[in-house]
Amino acid sequence: xxxxxxxxxxxxxxxxxxxxxxxxxxxxxxxxxxxxxxxxxxxxxxxxxxxxxxxxxxxxxxxxxxxxxxxxxxxxxxxxxxxxxxxxxxxxxxxxxxxxxxxxxxxxxxxxxxxxxxxxxxxxxxxxxxxxxxxxxxxxxxxxxxxxxxxxxxxxxxxxxxxxxxxxxxxxxxxxxxxxxxxxxxxxxxxxxxxxxxxxxxxxxxxxxxxxxxxxxxxxxxxxxxxxxxxxxxxxxxxxxxxxxxxxxxxxxxxxxxxxxxxxxxxxxxxxxxxxxxxxxxxxxxxxxxxxxxxxxxxxxxxxxxxxxxxxxxxxxxxxxxxxxxxxxxxxxxxxxxxxxxxxxxxxxxxxxxxxxxxxxxxxxxxxxxxxxxxxxxxxxxxxxxxxxxxxxxxxxxxxxxxxxxxxxxxxxxxxxxxxxxxxxxxxxxxxxxxxxxxxxxxxxxxxxxxxxxxxxxxxxxxxxxxxxxxxxxxxxxxxxxxxxxxxxxxxxxxxxxxxxxxxxxxxxxxxxxxxxxxxxxxxxxxxxxxxxxxxxxxxxxxxxxxxxxxxxxxxxxxxxxxxxxxxxxxxxxxxxxxxxxxxxxxxxxxxxxxxxxxxxxxxxxxxxxxxxxxxxxxxxxxxxxxxxxxxxxxxxxxxxxxxxxxxxxxxxxxxxxxxxxxxxxxxxxxxxxxxxxxxxxxxxxxxxxxxxxxxxxxxxxxxxxxxxxxxxxxxxxxxxxxxxxxxxxxxxxxxxxxxxxxxxxxxxxxxxxxxxxxxxxxxxx
Length: 766
Hints:
Pfam families: Adaptin_N (PF01602), Alpha_adaptinC2 (PF02883). The chain is 55% helix and 8% strand. It is built from 33 helices and 8 strands.
């Protein structure tokens, strides 16, 4: 017995009544078989009903691709019931990736010229949903004609379709310029809102359109003034705010038109002041309007007094404790965007910003932290750092890493003295050592090593901190390094800058042994402690050398121990230095090494030569080769360096609001098919770039391996860059292309950029 096909309502009830996933699949499979059979039979009267059931099945996640051609048949049908379901199916089952969507172009063109508003609306909705660039080119003229039709129903949908077309094909801008000026006189909410959106898209994509629409700034100002002062469309008011959606869209358009244009900015100054003053911020709708107003004030050439004295930025305004949380968040975000252009004006609100650090709302305290870090300068670094360190002690765990990194960067940039700098880093390591960045240990050891007058002070401070707590691994690593380097100063007991501290050799060794045996110590921490114990074996004067069992009991080692375990020389820090000066310095050092008659290792060879000399006089050693694989390298069994690979020029592939992305290339000579790309992100703006993620893709003929980045925060003002290594294996030496996706947070906004790099040097793949 053949089971009859179900109606749509019965199908929905039966699917909802299924008790298991298997029962649901069984019902759907049976009904899909009936639908296929009906499509094959070509029943024109019930085709739209069968397609409606198939669309419901598609909405549940089951395959429905076999209904695509039926959509085209229904769209071509003269019956409205067929067209309605056919267009709905086209919007759900078709997209630009399938060639079938191009087959409905003629049907849409015919329906747009019919004059039946309901059919025209269906065609416009479908075009704005699945319209490809080819369809937009073919149908732009028909849509332009509908923009000035008498019926508001069709005009509203035509405006939205035009927005889609401009986003797909910006070259169509000239077609839609003339109708927009007339549509600005509309009183209909939907048409006016769509027109403002269309003009915004045109101005963002066409300089000619931007110049053209600057003439309508007075008209836009008048529309917005009517909304604010008298109410433009009472039926669209929300929480007492007159049509906030339209207000926000007009403010965005004014921001684009007034950017870098004095006359347009001057025209809107008074209006922006009125909006900022009269908007009710007790509701979310008012906060949205206020936020867009502030952004417009910041981005246009508004009067300086308007920026500084805007009520939304006043300490007695939304940033005050009695104001709603969202209003204060808007103010903090606006101040964060303003800090780069007018730093002194934002400094006026510093006390209120610091108060917002204590807010229980996580988003508010995070925004206050970002702004507080941006406000630090050489004149307030002591006070601001003290406030931030106090906040660090009690801040939520998810903010500790950002706060600790920000304090370290601020101290590095604006430290008044080296001792203050060391004290600041030590306090951060003591409070939140597990949350600091990976380079904190190297930076502090570099700082201490370069401050010879503070060696005794530093080693005493670190020893005391280590004795109190060995759980903070970065602090333990720095302390172990410092004790190993300057342990003799710790034992001398003479330091005028600290309280008298009598330390015995046994206590120092016991503390390092405690670090070695602790289950909390990382492998790197144990390495620091082992090195410190070995170095102390050359600095201790008592009988405790037996407690350093990590020395080699050989005559050679005893002879060379003092030279090998001597204090580390000061290493020059790498950074964003001038490349030409760096290359010049390297060239000078190379020349000096070549003309030197007694290399630094010659004394070491003299000592070794004494072991093989049978007479009292030693033969002079042969001159050392300048290469790393010379006599000293062979003696210590060091690996010889391979020849330097051919240099490939660096490439800058991205730059936006101070964030730069540079690529450097290396092709190892031993593996010609391998390309190593180092992605370097540098931030020259005044605010940190956080949550930075870089993803890459290569052609299928290549293999890509992404190494872990050095961090996810790119410090402001040219701080330590974030690097990431890409390993690309290109065995066929095919032309190389990269597709990069960047996601990050900057200046209070979440940014995502996707772009292709097609101009890679030929040396990277040939």
